[in-house]
Design brief:
It is a single chain. The protein contains 4 helices and 4 strands, in the order H-E-H-E-E-H-E-H. The protein is α+β, with helices and mostly antiparallel strands. Strands 1, 2, 3 and 4 form a 4-stranded mixed beta sheet that branches. It is elongated and about 60 Å long.
Length: 133
């Protein structure tokens, strides 16, 4: 689900006369931050990964970046999140909360401004689905 492009992010410039160096952020770090921020939103049942991540989770490996795609461009960072909403929650409200939560988490953990946060609702999870799992 994630593009593995090398980010061209250079951290905030050091103040004063001392040059400390460069800070590069791996795409996997952003995926984990976005994945955790998404699952913390009330009304999100889970994020939607691909076949490989689903199989890995069945064997006990937790993928926090599942269902997250990040891409870098000259204009900034674009994030796509694929998730399932719990039955009874307004899809529009959950999607807006996801966008706010992701922007807040990315900014406060990395000092990055996001260009776009696109939320793709891939399904609705009913209570009967939860009981049978």
């Amino acid at each position: 689900m994630a593009d593995k492009t090398v980010p061209s992010f250079v951290g905030m410039a050091p103040t004063g006369d001392v040059e400390l160096g460069r800070v590069q952020l791996a795409p996997e770090v952003l995926e984990v931050i976005v994945g955790i921020a998404t699952t913390e939103v009330k009304g999100v049942a889970n994020t939607r990964g691909n076949f490989a991540t689903d199989v890995a989770e069945r064997f006990g490996r937790v993928r926090h970046g599942k269902g997250v795609k990040t891409s870098w461009s000259e204009e900034g960072l674009t994030i796509d999140v694929y998730c399932v909403v719990q039955y009874g929650f307004a899809v529009r409200d959950v999607a807006l909360d996801i966008q706010k939560q992701i922007r807040h988490a990315i900014y406060h953990m990395t000092s990055l401004q996001t260009k776009e946060v696109n939320v793709h609702i891939t399904g609705i999870e009913y209570e009967a689905d939860i009981e049978t799992v």
